[in-house]
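pasting for the record
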Amino acid sequence: MKRRLRLRPATTRDQPLLERWSFQPHVEAASPNTSCSSRLEQPPGWRQRFIGELDRHPIGYIQLTEPARENRGASWAEEGDARRNIDLWIGEPGYLGQGYGSTMLQLALAHCFSDLRITTVWLDPPADNHHAHRFCERLGFRFIEQRRLGESHSRSYCMERRDWLG
């Protein structure tokens, strides 16, 4: 039987699930600055949030943001509407290492690049999360730079539309 993975918009009903996932050690390592306490309140126009479901069973979370609107004034956010950032994690530990994160990311990339204005998509995993770095590189993202985000350091990876189509 073929299993089906899809993304659906996250709703306030998902709040308890995200709060439970946020205490998983693998989620904390992937998103040390993540706070689920306000995650699903009415989102600002620069953020879209999705739950990854496998056969209608929630297994992960994706957030797409427009850095130009989220981080006004930051030098790296000056690409305007042409860029999206993706935050992604598998919440359920039993689904790690089975390719579901890769599939969720591919679905998110297809969503982003369906908007013809989008030219680049970025991922910013923590600098010490080597598994996430390999994940980004395996999926075709290019390392750009290390940067400081709040109290932590991250590595920035980029995929351009032409690389995704290629």
